Amino acid sequence: xxxxxxxxxxxxxxxxxxxxxxxxxxxxxxxxxxxxxxxxxxxxxxxxxxxxxxxxxxxxxxxxxxxxxxxxxxxxxxxxxxxxxxxxxxxxxxxxxxxxxxxxxxxxxxxxxxxxxxxxxxxxxxxxxxxxxxxxxxxxxxxxxxxxxxxxxxxxxxxxxxxxxxxxxxxxxxxxxxxxxxxxxxxxxxxxxxxxxxxxxxxxxxxxxxxxxxxxxxxxxxxxxxxxxxxxxxxxxxxxxxxxxxxxxxxxxxxxxxxxxxxxxxxxxxxxxxxxxxxxxxxxxxxxxxx
Length: 291
Prior knowledge:
Blueprint: E1 2-6, H1 11-20, E2 26-30, H2 40-50, E3 54-57, H3 71-91, E4 95-101, H4 124-139, E5 143-148, E6 151-152, H5 159-167, E7 172-176, E8 180-181, E9 184-185, H6 186-201, E10 208-211, E11 218-219, H7 220-233, E12 241-245, H8 265-271, H9 278-290
Helix pairs in contact: 1-6, 2-3, 3-4, 5-7, 7-9
């Protein structure tokens, strides 16, 4: 089965390369430089030439605060370009596996969000991602939309690596404790996608939205403490004190969900994909970084 990965140099793209390197699929990895999804006609020509049976869109505008000002760029990549890709998938009868976000919800719930829960994004980033989802559904193509959250790995820029970097220069850190979510190890997302690819190959799959994230909710502060607890064992520099602070302490351009825990029971039922064990993910990430 021919598979095209868009955004191959990003965090998830690199993880997909690691996980799928021994798979039986015929995979083409394309970076943003190789296929610029904001160039609609060129993207269409390139995809038509490759003629994939599945496209994994791991490309996205993810700078949440910058999106508030650079909203045209955010909507171009997260909505309009996605709409174009979905239209191409419909034309060539190709599946689209697309990565979305917990930011499509407003964070006002006190119970985990299901795929059917009411969406109400509170930021430009969240709105652009939701518009991308809706464009996929409207296109008529075959699709799997995966909503995930708090993604981290040994690749790219993410919260875990930022904490490790800050610890190199600071004895004390202040980390937000009143935002609750589920950290997700990007390698686990890649394994989840591998299972979905196998189902698509067997034609045992139907278009749907799925939540996929970490298994145990925590705050950013708890996540940071967990990272440094393991980092110390690997000999990484760790801060002396990690203060717990409220989000009001930090003024940001974009609103963040206070509670963005996702219910992952649907993907477990349909694909036997279990939530990401982010504590193990921390250990694996640190092991890779230690190399």
